[in-house]
Design brief:
- The protein is mostly beta strands.
- It has a single domain, classed as Jelly Rolls (Sandwich).
- It has no helices and eleven strands.
- The strands form three sheets. The protein has a six-stranded antiparallel β-sheet, with no helix packed on it.
- It is globular, with a radius of gyration of 15 Å.
Length: 126
């Protein structure tokens, strides 16, 4: 049917592009639309990302490998830990940073729903 070629697409690993940068993370974009961002991120062993938030996007993260530690909340005092097979939800505007204390890379798949800028780097939480 004409006009339906882009209704279903496959983005191969070698087709991902550099995603919005945050120190300590390799973020790759698979695709973006007006209301969604999807991609992949890797945090190397022993690394910690910079503080950031995702504006008006809420995020669903699926941990593929490694250990994902996420600090957030007032002065960054709250922490969650997730491993392979776990999902993590990040609310709109939640300032956070990820770290990977494991011996292997932490690989995550991310889907964000919202509008506007999908990544905002900041100095830290309030």
């Amino acid at each position: 049917m004409p006009g339906h070629d882009d209704e279903v697409r496959v983005i191969r690993a070698d087709q991902r592009t550099a995603g919005p940068p945050t120190a300590g993370m390799d973020r790759q974009e698979a695709f973006t639309t007006e209301t969604m961002w999807a991609g992949y991120a890797r945090t190397k062993p022993g690394m910690m990302s910079g503080w950031h938030h995702h504006g008006d996007y809420e995020s669903a993260i699926y941990v593929l490998s490694g250990s994902l530690h996420m600090e957030f909340g007032p002065s960054g005092t709250q922490t969650v830990v997730a491993g392979p097979g776990d999902f993590v939800f990040v609310a709109k505007g939640a300032v956070h940073r990820e770290s990977n204390p494991s011996n292997e890379p932490a690989d995550i798949a991310v889907v964000r729903a919202g509008r506007g800028e999908s990544n905002v780097n900041v100095d830290g939480p309030a």
